[in-house]
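Course assignment 3, question 2. Fill in each field.
Student: A.L.
Task: Predict the tertiary structure for the chain below.
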Amino acid sequence: MPDSLAPGFREAALVGMAEDLGDYLRNGGGLNIDGGAYVGPGQAPEEYHQTGAARPRQTKKMPADPNYTPYVDRVAAVLDVCRHLPRSVFSDSQMETINWCCTTLGIDSIPSVSWLKEMSDDLQDKIGIRTLRFQGALGHVYYANSLQDQIAQEFANPLISEHIRVFPEDIEPSAGMGEARQFARWRHEADPSILSPMPRVKNPHTGASNDFLIFEPVRLSDASASEICMPFRFFTREVTTDVGSRAEFFVEAWRLEAVIGDRPEHGGYIVNEHSVLEFPASHLQLTFPMLQATHKTLSVPDPGSILGRRNELHGEVTPWTRVANPVLDNNWRAKARQHRVVTFMMWLYCDDTSGNSSKKWNKHNSFLWTAAGLPRAMAQQQQNVHFSCTSNLAPPLEMLDGIASQLEEGQRDGWWVWDYANNEPVLVIPEVLALLGDNPMQSELSCHIGLMGKYFCRICKVRGSDADDDDDGPNAGSAPQSLFHHSTHRRRPLLSLDASSLDSSLTGSSTDASSASTSGISGSSAASDTATAKKKKPRKRPLETMHQMYDRSIRFLSNNPFRRKEESQDQLRSIFTEASRVGGKTNAGKMQTQHGVKDTYQSTFMEKIWDFGRKLRGSIPEKQQKMDDFIRNNIPEEHISPVWRIQDLDPHKDTPGEVLHVVLLGFVKYFWRDIVSRLSDEEKATLATRLSSFDFDLFTRDGQPCAFDNERVERLTNYAILCSNNMGLTEGQLNDILILIKLSCGDIAMSYGQMYWNIFSAAHDLHSKNTQQKLVFEKEAIDALVKTVLERLREAYELSRDQNLIILNRAKQLIGEAQRINYKNTALEIEAKLRQHEKFAHVWGNDIPEIVVRSACKEKAKNLTGSLRLVLYKTLVGKQQCSLATATLNIVTTYCSLPADQKIPIQYQVHFALLRRFIREKAWGDWVIEYVNDDGEKIATKCKGPSGRVPTGEDFWSKVEAWFLERLQTLGEGFKGTKWEEYIKETIRLDHEKYFAGQDPALESFPEEYYHSTIRAREGTLA
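Answer field:
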């Protein structure tokens, strides 16, 4: 620990005890109270009947109670807490009353109110949170709490620091992700340069702890082949050992390609960012300083010589820019001074709130934040939601400027804090994980034009109603000529976003040829004419045609391109450039509508420019010169939103939807308000009584919402009636069972099988009571009842959507294999695959679920093989007849589970060429009739076999298997060898001669000379 740090509490206590003992001996056994150690607040019994003693003057020599640090003693701590309760602040007169009561009760050393104020001010200066004053770029003064002080208190808080997580965590999705550090934003998408750059790894051999930083070459241990790599991300993962599970550090690193030069100084490394390693942090052996000191001994290039980086295999080498100087280490190593460096992730929240309780809306914009590294249960507690700033004058983006400035400082230099959990100083890098708020606020923070715009989504570029869709012709308001005509009837947008920009009296630019000003800046006469002009009556919105509704739905549901941070910044700069031009207001508004971006921070400066432009007179060049001078002297260079200055924050992606405003205060609130508005006063009173009497715990179980299912109640009721009829229960006994059914239907954790068994057990008990415990059932009645129970149980188990999708994917994987010859046992193979899947772990060993899963496997296999058989026939005859390449593309796209970005291997064409040849040679007559028409052309059509004699899919695939086995015996096993090469060449040649029409846009055709060596070399090259 550095010498500058103060000694610990135990050391200080020992020193104090030694000094007290020396004073005691020097004073002849007397205790020096004025300068000695704290003796405690003890009182003699007789003091309870006396008035409290006055508090002595507090001096620097007076000792403080260490149990109440930083306060002097317990009395000062309690009274100061009373003065600062957040929801019940005591006034000075109330504090005087409390002091009088304490003194009357005989409590000694009660401080005065003025002394408490002085102590509070002193503590605020020493350890409190500073309030920073900002002069906003828009002209408003606002105050914000210091993020540095708030984060420092988080780490110094004994109740909080041990729960703060600063590294992302890798976890299987099936294990249940619930914390921010486990999701992709923190784990994969965050810029490595802003994440916690180093873990402290203990060497298992020497026991020493080493600091490994990102973007520094390191050497791995012998267990990892002593490879030299470049770590770029550290994360934790839960590892199970013999003694239990614990979180361990893991590393993601880039491989380094050593380059040996003619001279040692010419050598170095190329960072292959396309090749990623992942390994435990315990494999790290030599840090960058160690490797730099021993690289000559190890006969490796200097790790400080980074020649460049390569983003793809055999790609171009580009300069290495991850660190300022590759020869030196990561700059955080020098700044940390052998201490830990961590990243503190936070959720930044902004909302507008009312500042008073009257009906007048006094709008305040407030910023708050919570620690993203805390568990969700703690992060939502009131004491962990931290206030940053508020103002009823400054807009959100202006206040965000001050927050961004603090973040830039912390991300550049780091902030020193005391980590209570690890008892050491730590250098903290602040970072915003996401911006939270309601939809309008998030649109403003992301510089989006809003929900009423043409491009109404802040995340993607989905387009809604367009101003260009209006029909400005004379028949704009008339009915459409055709319901499906695309251009005769256009829908008017809900709101014209650039309506203000169309007012020539405000813009200084007019598109009307009769404008009084030819320069584009409206003069006073033009403004007067506009003000006195008769307003046009707004048109009614035309009805939307079916075609327009269809187009709008398709646009909304399509895979629209995402907005990009860099693109939005370029668009905002282009808008400002256009707004800075004389007469550019109209075009600037149109550009905002066209791109769907609007920066309210930037708009303030543009309004100043336009206000200045209205007053200008003269020619266009003269006005432009004056406007340029005004911009140069009055508009800051950084005129776009400060949100773009926050490192590694994309406001388009990092503004997740908020459930509170979107759902609970959205349609749920309006739906509930509509319901209540339709009730009478008596019905409202009844509703209030029922709500207050209802147990809402029934709606939740283990944190999961429950719901009452009418279908579930109906099925169980029918079964209860069936049991009642079979067992001869009375009507009252049946009603008791029905009441139990309704009460238990909220328990979604109970399956149908359990419910059926409970109903059966209840009916059985009642029947036993009726017959005085003498049950006499006929064998047929018991068998019928058991059969009914089994049938109900079989109906009760239903596969989930995920399970059905898994079965379908497994079926596609098996049926779509390129060299598959056996299609009869596909269902059994699917079942074998499912036995290894965790989603079906509970199925095996349970008779009913096994039957359901086995039936689903058979059904999926039968459907896919049957449809594949029909598609193969259709590619050879009829309107869907096509070449081999086109057929392959269509079949692979439908039946084979290949990734979307994977190219189609050429083996699929070979496989389907063989299947098409089998159909032509062995199964053509079963399905196709050929005849010659009047023109002498040979026509092939699908035959209609007699009833009961249509070939089945099972017969077809049995013939396929027999045909392939025959070829394998004749030509050789494994589809390899000269005979197979010649046979495949012949098959493809015959297929091309018959079906290739000279145009094949789907896949490239086969080469003239085709061998299996060519297949292996060309695997994955077909697009």
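Instructor remarks: Residues 411 and 429 are 5 Å apart (CA to CA). The two ends are 62 Å apart (CA to CA).
Grade: pending
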